Known about the structure:
There is one protein chain. This protein has helices at residues 3-18, 192-200; strands at 23-24, 45-51, 54-60, 64-67, 70-76, 79-84, 87-94, 97-100, 103-110, 113-120, 123-130, 133-138, 143-151, 154-161, 170-180. With 202 residues, the chain is mainly beta. The chain has one domain (23-200). The longest helix has 16 residues, at 3-18. The relative contact order is 0.19.
Amino acid sequence: MSGSGSRAAVAWIALALSGCAPTAALMTPPPSVKPGPGQGDETTGGIEFAAGGVGSSIAYGPWRVKGEGIDLAYAGDGAWAGTWNGSAARFTASQGLLQGPGTAVRIDQRDGALALRGTWAGRPIDLTVSRTGLQGTTSQGACSLDLRSTGTGNLTGSLGCPGGEGRPATSATGRLRLLGEAVLVPDVLLPQFVLALLTALP
């Protein structure tokens, strides 16, 4: 093959692969730092998760993410500040990246899904969420989730952890509900959706 032919082949392969590569997700901050009158607590989406008899519910909107264990408000320049897991916290979000206490999560979009990989609250995570399912691992890969759509906004499936020294294996049926605009994942408010989802999951 001639030199020009080889270069053309390489260029074609690179172009084909680029179409399959994940794209760093764009953040969607609210239209202003301070909400207008009555807009601060506006709710446009939410996440509910239940498994093994326990559950959590997190609501979010353009300016706020609030629920059990989290209450963050937009602070401008991609920052979200408030309380998280009982302590004062500040998160920052830029294209494809969410950072905060013990947290560095890469957010990519590909094939109609969001891929979340990195560290959340000091625990490694590798999750993929879409309108049709939630799959992946948490807690250094020890626990796995495989939830599938059973209807619009409803995902159901297995949640299991293999156990270890002094800790029995556990398994349960997990149920995730995507509320409001969350059913449109990956076309959702970011990082609000991700903050709500990761806080709701065990």
